[in-house]
C-alpha cells in the first residue's frame, strides 16, 4: 500500500528517481503502479531529457525546463549538467540567466531559496529557521541591485544565487543540500517592475543608508546564529555597497564577494597564461582598466599582490595599474573618487585623457581589461592602437552578458592582425584568421568560486582570504597545456571543469590548513592526502540505492 512517505519520495527532488526506481525499490517503498512498468537507467533518462531540451525553441524555455527538472529530480538534473557542462552551463547561468532574471516574475514556477524582505526586520533569524536544512554551508545572497550588467532587478535577481549554487554542485561537487540561495528584498528602483502586476517583490523604492546596512548586519548576524558553519557569498551588489560590505565582514565571518575576489582570481589566472604565452612575468606589464568599480579594483588588488610576490614594492606595483571611468582617466587630480579608487589615482602630466583611445595612448598599456558593461567600447581604433604598442596585446573584455561585452573575439583577433591574446567574460565561438585556429577563452568565475567553495566545505574554513584566490589562480593556470596555448586558449577547456575544480580545491584546502584556518579535523590530519579528502566529500549525481 502506498504511504504518505512513499508519495513524498516521488515528489521530493532530492529523493525522486522517477523511472529509475528498481523493481525492489518500488515494492519496498510502496510505489508500484505509480510509475510506468519499465525500469530505466540514468542513461535512458538522460536521452529523454536531451530530447525534451532540443524541442524547446529558445534558451529561455530551456532554462525554464531545466529549472523544473531541478525541482522534481535533483540527481537527474545534475547528471544532465555534468554530461555536457559546456553546453548546459550557458542555459542555467550566463548568458541565459540574465534574461531569466529580467522576466522572473513572468516565468516563476516553484519558488526557490529564501526571500527576506525589510518587512521581516527583527525576524531574520526566524525566517532563516524556516529553511528545511539545518547544516547549510553556503549562502549566496544578493540584493538584486546590480544583476550582471542589467542593473536593478530587485527580487527578480534570485536567478543569480540559484544559478551560482547549481554550479557549485555541478562543477565542484558541493552537496546541494548544503546550499541556500537568498535575496534580501530591500525594494527596487526599477520603475517598470514596480508598475508590473507580476513583479513578486516588495513594491517600494530601495532602502539605503544606515537602514540598509543595519538590515544586512541583522542578516549576517542571524546566519552566524542559525547556520554557524555557513560561508556567505555576496553576489551582484553595486559598487557603493559591494566593497563596504566586504570590508565590514571579511575579518569577522566566513564570507567573500565573487564579483570582486572571484573575478580577480580568474582574471589573474588569465594573465598568468598570457605571460606564459609571451615568455614574460606579470611584473613586466602595464594594466589599463576600462571601468573603475569594485570588480576592476578587485582585479588590480590581486594583480598587485602577485607583483609584490614577484619582487615589486607595493607603490611600484600599484603604479602599474591605471583606471578609466566615464569621466576619463583616473588620476590624482580626479575629483569625487571613492576611497577604494584613491590608491590607484596616480599623478599624470599628460594633459587630458577623456576617451579610451586617449587613455591607451597616454598610459601605453600592454593589458587592456574591460569591466564596464559598455558594449563595443573596445573599438577598432583602440585595438589597433594596442596592437601598434605591443607585439602581443592582451585584450580582456570581461563584461557580461554577451550583449555588454566590450568587443567580440572576432573583432579583437581581426583588428590586431591575429596577435591579440584574448579572453572574455562571455562565451565566443572558435574562429579562423589567416588560416589559423583561435579558441577564445572565457574568464568565467565558475573556474574559481566552486573550487574555493569546495575547499572551504572540506576544511570547515573559518575565513576566506585573498591569498586563497591567488593560489586558486595559480592552480588554474597550471591546468593550461601547451596545446591550449597554441590555439590562443589561456584557460583550460570547460569540458574538464569538474577535474579542474577538484585540483584547485585541493590546492586551496592545503593553504587553509597551513594558515590555521581549518576546523575539520579530517582536513587537518589529512593535509598530505588532500586530494583523497576532496573526492570523499564531493557530491555524486548518480542515484543512490534506496534499499539500505
Notes on the structure:
- With 548 residues, this protein is of the alpha/beta class.
- Among the domains are: 68 residues, Hemocyanin, N-terminal domain (Up-down Bundle), CATH 1.20.1370; 146 residues, Malic enzyme, N-terminal domain (Rossmann fold); 152 residues, Rossmann fold.
- Helix 4 packs across helix 7.
Question: Could you provide a short overview of the structure?
Answer:
The chain is of the alpha/beta class. Helices cover 46% and strands 10% of the residues. Among the domains are: 4-71, Up-down Bundle (Hemocyanin, N-terminal domain), CATH 1.20.1370; 92-237, Rossmann fold (3-Layer(aba) Sandwich); 281-432, Rossmann fold (3-Layer(aba) Sandwich), CATH 3.40.50.720.
Per CATH, the superfamily of one domain is NAD(P)-binding Rossmann-like Domain
CATH architecture of one domain: 3-Layer(aba) Sandwich
Q: What's the pLDDT, averaged over the residues?
A: 95
Number of helices: 26
Q: Which fold name corresponds to the CATH topology of one domain?
A: Rossmann fold
The spatial strand order of the largest sheet comes to 8-7-6-9-10-11-14
End-to-end gap: 20 Å
Strand content: 5-15%
Give the key terms:
single chain; 548 residues; alpha/beta; Hemocyanin, N-terminal domain; Rossmann fold; 7-stranded mixed sheet; 5-stranded parallel sheet; 26 helices; globular
Amino acid at each position: 500500500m502506498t504511504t504518505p512517505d512513499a508519495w513524498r519520495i516521488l515528489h521530493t527532488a532530492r529523493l525522486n528517481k522517477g523511472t529509475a526506481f528498481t523493481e525492489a525499490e518500488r515494492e519496498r517503498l510502496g510505489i508500484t503502479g505509480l510509475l510506468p512498468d519499465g525500469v530505466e537507467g540514468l542513461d535512458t533518462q538522460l536521452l529523454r531529457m536531451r530530447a525534451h531540451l532540443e524541442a524547446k525553441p529558445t534558451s529561455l524555455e530551456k532554462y525554464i525546463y531545466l529549472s523544473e527538472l531541478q525541482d522534481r529530480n535533483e540527481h537527474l538534473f545534475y547528471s544532465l549538467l555534468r554530461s555536457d557542462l559546456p553546453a548546459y552551463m550557458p542555459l542555467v547561468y550566463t548568458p541565459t540567466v540574465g534574461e531569466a532574471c529580467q522576466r522572473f516574475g513572468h516565468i516563476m514556477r516553484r519558488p526557490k531559496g529564501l526571500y527576506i524582505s525589510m518587512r521581516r526586520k527583527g525576524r531574520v533569524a526566524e525566517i532563516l529557521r524556516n529553511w528545511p536544512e539545518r547544516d547549510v554551508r553556503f549562502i549566496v545572497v544578493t540584493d538584486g541591485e546590480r544583476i550582471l550588467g542589467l542593473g536593478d532587478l530587485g527580487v527578480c535577481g534570485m536567478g543569480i544565487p540559484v544559478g551560482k549554487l547549481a554550479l557549485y554542485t555541478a562543477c565542484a561537487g558541493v552537496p546541494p543540500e548544503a546550499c541556500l540561495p537568498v535575496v534580501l528584498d530591500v525594494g527596487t528602483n526599477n520603475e517598470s517592475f514596480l508598475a508590473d502586476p507580476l513583479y513578486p517583490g516588495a513594491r517600494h523604492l530601495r532602502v539605503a543608508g544606515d537602514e540598509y546596512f543595519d538590515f544586512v548586519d541583522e542578516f549576517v548576524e542571524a546566519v552566524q546564529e542559525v547556520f554557524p558553519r555557513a560561508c556567505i557569498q555576496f553576489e551582484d551588489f553595486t559598487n557603493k555597497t559591494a566593497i563596504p560590505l566586504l570590508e565590514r565582514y571579511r575579518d569577522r565571518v566566513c564570507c567573500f564577494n565573487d564579483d570582486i575576489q572571484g573575478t580577480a582570481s580568474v582574471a589573474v589566472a588569465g594573465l598568468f597564461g598570457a605571460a606564459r604565452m609571451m615568455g614574460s612575468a606579470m611584473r613586466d606589464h602595464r594594466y589599463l582598466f576600462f571601468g573603475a568599480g569594485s570588480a576592476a579594483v578587485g582585479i588590480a588588488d590581486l594583480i598587485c599582490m602577485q607583483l609584490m610576490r614577484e619582487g615589486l614594492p607595493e607603490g611600484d606595483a600599484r603604479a602599474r595599474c591605471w583606471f578609466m571611468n566615464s569621466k576619463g582617466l583616473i588620476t590624482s587630480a580626479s575629483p569625487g573618487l571613492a576611497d577604494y579608487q584613491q590608491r590607484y589615482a596616480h599623478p599624470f602630466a599628460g594633459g587630458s585623457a577623456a576617451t579610451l583611445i586617449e587613455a591607451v595612448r597616454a598610459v601605453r598599456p600592454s593589458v587592456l581589461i574591460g569591466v564596464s558593461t559598455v558594449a563595443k567600447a573596445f573599438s577598432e581604433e583602440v585595438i589597433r592602437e594596442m596592437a601598434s604598442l605591443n607585439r602581443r596585446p592582451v585584450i580582456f573584455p570581461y563584461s557580461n552578458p554577451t550583449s555588454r561585452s566590450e568587443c567580440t573575439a572576432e573583432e579583437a583577433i581581426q583588428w590586431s592582425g591575429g596577435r591579440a591574446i584574448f579572453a572574455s567574460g562571455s562565451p565566443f565561438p572558435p574562429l579562423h584568421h589567416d588560416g589559423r585556429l583561435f579558441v577564445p577563452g572565457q574568464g568565467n568565475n565558475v573556474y574559481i568560486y566552486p573550487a574555493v567553495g569546495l575547499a572551504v566545505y572540506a576544511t570547515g574554513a573559518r575565513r576566506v582570504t585573498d591569498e586563497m584566490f591567488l593560489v586558486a589562480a595559480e592552480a588554474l593556470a597550471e591546468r593550461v597545456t601547451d596545446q591550449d596555448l597554441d590555439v590562443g586558449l589561456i584557460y583550460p577547456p570547460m569540458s574538464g571543469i569538474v577535474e579542474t575544480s577538484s585540483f584547485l580545491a585541493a590546492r586551496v584546502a592545503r593553504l587553509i590548513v597551513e594558515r590555521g584556518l581549518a576546523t575539520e579535523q579530517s582536513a587537518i590530519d589529512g593535509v598530505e592526502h588532500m586530494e583523497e579528502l576532496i573526492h570523499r566529500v564531493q557530491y555524486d549525481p548518480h542515484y543512490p540505492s534506496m534499499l539500505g
